[in-house]
């Protein structure tokens, strides 16, 4: 059991380290893309072409962000599953020797952490990427519109409103999708370990 515990713990740590590397890669791609866009503006004189290139750049960043977001969510799911497996092993040791419960650093509750714990959708890297995806996609669409037409002052106001509204809508759709996925995983027998046969695995 100790060997199994150490193996699962090593896998969970590996997932965390890989997640940090993915975020660094995402930030590098974003920085290089925006720097490249700024650099190109010095060599392209046609304003419409600049807007078109900007549109492609931001849509590209939104696509990369969406891929990164999906990977972060999957990483979080695996991390929770591994942490629950570790809790189950700790619980097994406590069942063998009840006095161990006072020496545990982490909980032996097989239902923790929750997939929606730690305000995962309000204070995390997932939230950051989710917001950036919404902004990049809406700004990319706005630049595409500007590349096709030259909006007046009122048109610019409407365009800005469209960007804000689209960003908010995309943020809502992404968040809703993630919440539904995590709620479904909360009920998965593989992710929640019933203490006794017949227990409701959906409880938190």
Main attributes of the structure:
4 helices, mainly alpha, 204 residues
Outline the structure in words.
This protein has helices spanning 2-40, 47-96, 125-148, 153-186. It has 204 residues and is mostly helical. The protein has one domain.
SSE layout and pairings?
Blueprint lengths: L1 H39 L6 H50 L28 H24 L4 H34 L18
Helix pairs in contact: 1-2, 2-3, 3-4
Span between N and C termini? 26 Å
CA-atom Rg in angstroms = 23 Å
Shape: elongated
* Proportion of helical residues: over 70%
Strand content: under 5%
Structure described in brief:
This protein is an all-alpha fold and 204 residues long.
């Amino acid at each position: 059991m100790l060997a199994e515990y150490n193996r699962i713990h090593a896998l969970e740590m590996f997932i965390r380290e890989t997640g940090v590397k993915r975020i660094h890669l995402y930030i590098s791609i974003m920085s290089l893309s925006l720097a490249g866009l700024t650099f190109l503006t010095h060599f392209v004189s046609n304003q419409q072409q600049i807007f078109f290139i900007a549109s492609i750049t931001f849509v590209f960043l939104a696509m990369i962000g969406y891929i990164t977001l999906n990977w972060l969510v999957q990483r979080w799911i695996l991390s929770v599953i591994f942490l629950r497996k570790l809790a189950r092993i700790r619980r097994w040791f406590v069942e063998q020797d009840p006095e161990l419960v006072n020496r545990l650093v982490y909980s032996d509750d097989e239902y923790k952490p929750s997939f929606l714990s730690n305000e995962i959708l309000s204070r995390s890297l997932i939230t950051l990427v989710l917001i950036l995806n919404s902004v990049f996609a809406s700004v990319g669409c706005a630049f595409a519109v500007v590349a096709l037409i030259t909006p007046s002052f009122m048109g610019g106001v409407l365009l800005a409103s469209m960007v804000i509204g689209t960003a908010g809508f995309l943020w809502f759709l992404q968040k809703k999708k993630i919440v539904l996925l995590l709620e479904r995983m909360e009920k998965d027998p593989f992710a929640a370990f019933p203490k006794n046969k017949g227990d409701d695995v959906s409880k938190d």
